[in-house]
Each structure stands twice: as structure tokens, then as C-alpha cells.
Write the C-alpha cells for this entry.
Amino acid sequence: MSEIAQARTFDEFMEGIWRQNPVFVMVLGMCPVLAVSVSAVNALSMGLATMFVLVCSCGLVSLIRKIVPKEVRIATYIVIIATFVTVVDYVIQAVSLEIYEALGAFIQLIVVNCIILGRAEAHASKHPPLTAMVNAMGMSIGFVIGLFALGAVREVLGAGTLFGFSLFGPNFQPWVVMVLPPGGFIVLGGWLLLFSALKRRKEVRLAAQGGGHGA
């Protein structure tokens, strides 16, 4: 693989992790992000389930992109996504009933996650399988990072634990609001504020450097 191809592949991979992070930049898939991120385990489980569906569906969509008629492409994509969601549903149910019950209907709702259908339509249907799957992997890792960032903070503050392990001892007073629906919005808003401040700080620094060079 040439250096240009390697750089392009790396760029495809990093797009969803940072520049177009589905949670913190595009703010997509907020329903599962806010609903299941009450703990780190739930967040990672949903993130990994979404990763499997996204990577596999984008790979298959890319493989059949030239033979699917344009008139039925969306319906075809939905059937493909639903097939992989069914696989994930049965796997999670077989591996851990506790996680399956905690995630509830949000496993099946992966079918309508706009991140997956959006990647299938906007990217996988226009690129070869390797490029599509690399891009999907980066996007799904970005989604996992976003889910975990919310889930970890909410579990630490709302229960005083991380992955079920106590962090602060028996005297810690949990912030109950963090495990309630408003807690999801509070933590998400905090992360968005942090990234916005970092972006603004970078822009100011680059502007100052540009002004200095101009002088």
C-alpha cells in the first residue's frame, strides 16, 4: 500500500473518532446515548453492539452497492441492518441476560440509529468494502468513546463506582440525578462545553500565530 493510500485510510479511520465524532460533533444517536449511559458497562455494551452492526452492514452494503437498484436501496440497507441487529440481539441475550435487560428495547432500536443508515447511504454505498469498513470502524469507535465518556461520569458520580467497583467508600453520597434522565443531559452538556472551549482555544491560538507571522 502506498503512502498516499495509507494516509487516506488513516484519514478515513480518524474521521469518526475526532473530526466527525457522532456524539460530540454531529450529535447523532442521542436516544441510546442518553438512555443507556447510566453505567460504564451499559455504555460499552451498547457501543460494541452498534460497532458490530455498523461495520458489518457497511461492509455488506459496499459489496452489493453496484447491483442494488436505486429505487430500493434504502429498503435494502434497512433489511441488512436489521439482520445484523437480530444477530446482536440473540448474542447479547445468550451472553448476559442482565445486560440484555438493562439495554432493553434499545438493542432493537439500533436498526433506526441514524449513524448506521447515514454511513450506509452517504459513504458505504459510494466506496469499496475496505474503505467503507475502515470508516465505519472509526465512526463506531467514536460512538463507543462518546457513550463511555457519559457512562463513566454518570456511574462515578451517580453511584460512586466504575464497572461496579467502589471508588469512594461507604461514606460517599451519590448524586442521584446522574442516574436519572436529567443526568444524561447534564453530562452531555458538560462534555460539549469542554470540547467547544478546547476548539475555541485552538482557534484563538492559531489566529494569534497567524497574526504574529503577518506582523
